[in-house]
Amino acid sequence: MARTIDEDAFHDFVVSRSPALLRTAYLLTGDAHLAEDLVQTALFKTAKSWRRIRGNPEAYTRRVLYNENVSRWRRTRNQRETVLDEQTSETALRRDVTPADPDLAISLERALAELTPRQRALLVLRFYEDMTETQTAAALGISPSTVKTSTRQALARLRQIAPHLGELTEVRS
Fold this sequence. Notes:
The chain has 173 residues and is mainly α. The protein has eight helices and no strands. α1 packs across α3, α1 packs across α4 and α7 (133-140) packs across α8 (144-161).
């Protein structure tokens, strides 16, 4: 059976944007396997809504990604997450999203893991995805002033957890 134009467009979207979505999901979760699950869930929800999505399907998918991560965190916040052994895919993914200095990368990863999922999402969106406060607010469904305040608090917490990451946590104008 031949695919429709919508199916072709969705397939092209998945093929072209999955690597970027996976990197973002890894930064949000800190775990390659959870990141893969998160991307699959986001793409599944995007596929279900594909015909209704107007304009930028990536923005829709990323919003689903962020919201699903927060929902996952809320469901599991009282449960202790098990740290999985490093897998080859996780190591390859980590190379794409961390600083060149391995010690710095490990330290940053550990520090980010100490933040709440919302704080981590804010920092990922603002500084990795390079979104503005307004874009971040829209992606997370919160006000720009909440983004501003929460980002400041997340950076302060990151500085408290890992003061040796000083220059990484300084916001440049």
